Amino acid sequence: MMSVASAVPTNHAGLPANKNISLTYKMISKTYKSPGEKVREPGRWSLQGKTALVTGGTRGIGRSVVEELVALGATVYTCSWEEEELGQCLKEREARGVPVTGSICDISVQDQRERLIRDVTSRFGGKLDILVNNAGIAIRKSAMEHSTEEYSVLMATNLESAYHLCLLAHPLLKASGSGSIVFISSIAGVVALFSGPIYGMTKASLNQLAKNLACEWAKDNIRINSVAPGYISTSLTEQMFSNKELKDNIVRRTPVGRVGEPEDISSMVAFLCMPGSAYITGQTIMVDGGMTINGFYPK
Q1: Nearest 10 degrees: CA dihedral of 180, 181, 184, 186?
Q2: Is residue 165 part of a domain?
Q3: Has residue 206 been placed in a domain?
Q4: Domain carrying residue 110
Q5: Does the annotation count 231 as an active-site position?
Q6: Residue 6 falls within a domain, yes or no?
Q7: How big is the CA angle at 102 (ends 167 and 117), to the nearest 5 degrees?
């Protein structure tokens, strides 16, 4: 006759099966974090202790990106080809105790890009968490109006510089253990606009570059994304927006009913640099008030 004790199922360790289940649950519960616990993890929505290089950080979107990253705890290095503007900007930030340094750099010139990365390497001790390729120019002309020189300048400034800086910064980003690159692209790289075909080509190329590098450098724990702004109120669009009829037409085609501000872009850039966006890479994110998805939806 079988005793009650011998009828209790046991596991390979000789423990009652229900005891084993209890132990397993306790082990899992120690490592598993609920969604609520993950959201509350320290640093998930912060850039405290992070280092960043933001090109063209003295005006417009670039300036806003610098301010946003600093506000979230990052230490930022920036550059500009305009010496007086850079000096004034750094002076203002120093007076406010903002952790921003920088140097003169024409990013369209190879040896100046190399010098920039040497400066960043020295400043941040051989590591870099964030690279924001923001600096760029726009020449709004039709295909037949562009000169060969303008083509070369646009390509060198908007595309070649970003690609080269990624290559130069790769060892620093890899050394950080969790690097993030953000390209400031444009909706002109997604849909046809009157900003000109060459400008659009450079921005579309950035979007594709983000996809390729995201796959190639994932093994190095480096994420790469593009942010594609719509029409944003900056010095680049000041002359265009002076045409009231044109600006009104842009606003009518934008579902949210306004043009964008630099802060609309910098908030997305900051998000893509945070640990909270760790599963996002290779994406082109339109920040345009809905313009690119608005086929025909009259107000």
Answers
A1: -100
A2: yes
A3: yes
A4: 48-232+262-288
A5: no
A6: no
A7: 20
User: Would you call 268 exposed, middle or buried from its count of C-beta atoms within 10 A (0-12, 13-18, 19+)?
Assistant: buried
Tokens of 96: 């406010």
* Domain of residue 150, CATH code: 3.40.50.720
In a domain, 228, yes or no: yes
Give the chain's length: 299
Q: How many domains does the chain have?
A: 1
- Beta-ladder partners of 225: 182
Please enumerate in sequence order all residues whose Cβ is within 8 A of that of 240, keeping only pairs 6 or more positions apart, or say none.
Answer: 140, 246, 247
Place of tokens 């596991």: 11
**Spatial contact of 183 and 133, defined as CB atoms under 8 Å apart:** yes
**Widest Cα–Cα separation across the chain:** 101
280 residue type, one letter:
I
Estimate to the nearest angstrom the gap between the alpha carbon of 154 and the chain centroid: 21
**The residue type at 21:** I
Residue-level pLDDT, tens digit, the chain, 299 residues: 444 444 545 555 555 555 555 555 555 555 556 666 666 677 899 999 999 999 999 999 999 999 999 999 999 999 999 999 999 999 999 999 889 999 999 999 999 999 999 999 999 999 999 999 999 999 989 999 999 999 999 999 999 999 999 999 999 999 999 999 999 999 999 999 988 999 999 999 999 999 999 999 999 999 999 999 999 999 888 888 999 999 999 999 999 999 999 999 999 999 999 999 999 999 999 999 999 999 766 66
Q: Report H helices in the chain.
A: 17-31, 35-39, 60-71, 83-95, 110-123, 148-154, 161-176, 197-217, 238-241, 244-252, 262-273
Task: Read off the amino acid at residue 99.
Answer: P
Pull the structure tokens for residue 69: 């990253």
First-last CA distance in the chain: 85
Instruction: Exactly one of 77, 163, 199, 231 is catalytic; name it.
Output: 199
Nearest Cα to 156, choosing from 109, 203, 213? 109
Calpha distance 114→116 (Å, rounded):
5
